[in-house]
Amino acid sequence: NEPSAQSSGINAEYGETKEGFRGCWTSASCDELLDSIWRRPTWKSYLLIMVLMGTWISAPSVVYITAFAGINPTADNKWTCRSQECKDLIAANSSLFSEFPCELTREVDGKNELLLKSADIEWEMTHSSFAVEFDLNCDVGATKALKTLLSSIYFAGALTGLIIGGFLYDHIGRKKTALLGYFIVVVITLCGTFCHNYNFLLAIRFLQGTGGFLVATGMYILTVELLPAKYRNYANAAAQMLWAFGYPIAAGVGYFVKDWNYMFLAAAIIVFILNIQVFFCIESPRFYLIKGDAKSAKMSIEAFAALTGAKLDLENTKLSDLGKVQEREQSFWQQLRDMCSYPSLLLETLIQMFLWFFIGMSYYGFNFGWGSIVPNRYLGYLMASLGELI
Q1: Contact 40, 101 (CB under 8 A)
Q2: Residues 69-106, buried b or exposed e (16+ Cβ, 10 A)?
Q3: 196 φ, ψ to 5°?
Q4: Sign of the alpha-carbon dihedral angle for 199, 205, 208, 209
Q5: Which residue from 115, 116, 95, 118 is spatially nearest to 107, judged by alpha carbons?
Q6: Which is higher by pLDDT, 152 or 94?
Q7: Residue 355 in contact with residue 45, Cβ under 8 Å?
Q8: CA neighbor of 270 nearest in space, from 296, 252, 286, 288
Q9: Interatomic CA distance for residues 206 and 152, integer angstroms
Q10: Please, which residues have CB within 8 angstroms of residue 247's CB and are 6 or more apart in sequence?
Q11: Are strands 111-114 and 105-108 parallel, antiparallel or unpaired?
Q12: 220-223, Cβ contacts within 8 angstroms, sequence gap of 24 or more
């Protein structure tokens, strides 16, 4: 079973042994070399891809942490007075004690304000909540908008990560950018353990989005660039499957960790553990091609081959696509010019942008709203995980 060099399109001498594929090329492209590695994939190959994509399983614990750390008290939750002002108010009108505090308001300068705030009340709740601590638990005035902002600002941070990452992925590498995002999201999520200020929490959420995008997308790009084109749709499916598996982890943190600050600590530990492979993964050979470093590109391919059980000898091999990459200007403006030069590519991009905008609003609207959609938010996230897997 040794196809000719002409039929494969590779100037090569190669064969097959029971130890795995081995090859020696005089000239080959990066795609051709990856195709040879994946000609007979083993369990090691699939395991490696799943490990590299493992960053996605930790993401829901960070993205949806506000759905569990910011639970609002309900009319079923009992409460007692904490401040003297509350005690005096109840003493003057004992019937107020049977009312739900969020319904006790007064008008100040034409605006409704809560009569009793979180500093005045001690709630009996199974979990602590930043919504209670920061007076965001009642839909009075701008409180609902301020609470929603803690969830939505994550995506503003992700957009920032998109802009920064677009530059860094091609300048310092996929791996180094993912490492940067890893440190950002771990450290800033850990800071949530000590957060007792709304603006600080807002900054934490923004930087969680930035770091989370850098690490997840960096590892995604790195992974798909180690795959032949025919396998890349499977990589997309693997990423979404791992994301769905992250829902039960996020729900578990929200259910078993009673203190909202410690939920951030638990999320930081989860991200630290499930993204540790970022330290040990290989860099994408395509990044080295962009930088014109053929030696490092070949070392990267050989390292990947060794990890999957294949054997390659590229010492005397010339990468045929190196010159093509070097001839092109690799910049944002060049990519933008390319898109505008091809009307079909521009149209497809605009359609995808339009679709993803509305898909994203619907998808995340549901996933942040399980607490309002179903009686048990934890069960809601388990149902969401099952639904996405199906």
Answers
A1: no
A2: bbbbbeeebebebeeeebeebeeeeeebeeeebbeebe
A3: -140, 35
A4: negative
A5: 115
A6: 152
A7: no
A8: 252
A9: 9
A10: 60, 64, 381, 382, 384, 385, 388
A11: antiparallel
A12: 220/53, 220/55, 220/56, 221/169, 221/174, 221/284, 222/52, 222/174, 222/175, 222/178, 222/281, 222/283, 222/284, 223/49, 223/52, 223/53
Calculate the alpha carbon distances from 89 to 83, 113, 163 in Å. 10, 16, 53
> Distance between CA atoms of 244 and 225, rounded to whole angstroms?
23
H helices, E strands: number in the chain: 19, 8
Q: Write out pLDDT tens, residues 336-362.
A: 787 788 888 889 888 988 888 888 777
- DSSP per-residue letters across 276-293: GGGGTPPPPHHHHHHTT-
Report pTM. 0.85
The two three-digit tokens of residue 231, written as one number:
């396998």
Nearest to 191 by CA among 178, 203, 173, 180: 203
Quick one: 141 exposed, middle or buried, by C-beta within 10 A (0-12, 13-18, 19+)? middle
Whose structure tokens read 């001839």?
327
- Length in residues, the chain: 390
Which residue do the tokens 């942040």 mark?
368
Q: Specify the residue for token string 């259910």.
A: 255
Q: What are phi and psi of 179, to 5 degrees?
A: -65, -40
> Ramachandran region of residue 164, left (φ > 0), alpha (ψ -120 to 50) or beta?
alpha
How many angstroms separate the CA atoms of 272 and 282, rounded? 19
Q: What is the pLDDT of residues 224-273, one digit of tens each?
A: 999 888 888 888 888 889 999 999 999 999 999 999 999 999 999 999 99
- CA dist 285 and 169 (Å) reads 13
Average pLDDT over the chain reads: 84
